[in-house]
Amino acid sequence: MTIDPRKPYDPDNIFAKILRGEIPNNTVYEDEHVLAFHDIAPQAPVHVLVIPKGAYVSWDDFTANASDAEIGGFIRAVGHVAREMGLVEPGYRLLANIGHDGGQEVPHLHVHLFGGKPLGRMIAG
Ligand code: 5GP
């Protein structure tokens, strides 16, 4: 099931529960603005999710409503995680699914960070 990126934030979504510590996660990085953790169902040898700590449904919500500090902190953190995981030299892919056509399933903004092998074509099908 996919979500509407314009809907009000659902505080019971799975990533909100992870941020509150109600569900465990395999953390790779955390700071005041973000949490990064391994995806539970990895689709590449490296598959990390980077999420803002603020309550934003989607990239659309985040870029319209987050502060400059939150946006700057989030984008810098994505780059930091990729560097720390040794992905810059071999290369990697970032992906954010937004809404129905984007196939977004969890209604809390997340950027997927994929790496660890050549990733092939950008969009399948
Ligand atoms: P979306 O389709 O919304 O862009 O991606 C959601 C991602 O969240 C999927 O890759 C899925 O495997 C991951 N995911 C869903 N539930 C959990 C969970 O409880 N823990 C972790 N670590 N990842 C999850």
Structure description:
The chain has 125 residues and is α+β, with helices and mostly antiparallel strands. It has a single domain, classed as 2-Layer Sandwich (HIT family, subunit A), CATH 3.30.428. It is 27% helix and 19% strand. The chain is built from four helices and five strands. A hairpin with a 3-residue loop joins strand 1 and strand 2. Bound molecules: guanosine-5'-monophosphate. Guanosine-5'-monophosphate (5GP) binds next to loops. Guanosine-5'-monophosphate binds at residues 14, 23, 25, 37, 39-41, 97, 103-106.
The helix/strand order is HEEEHHEHE
Bound molecules: guanosine-5'-monophosphate
Query: Low-confidence stretches at least 5 residues in length (pLDDT < 50)?
Result: none
State the CATH superfamily name.
HIT-like
CATH topology: HIT family, subunit A
End-to-end distance, in Å? 19 Å
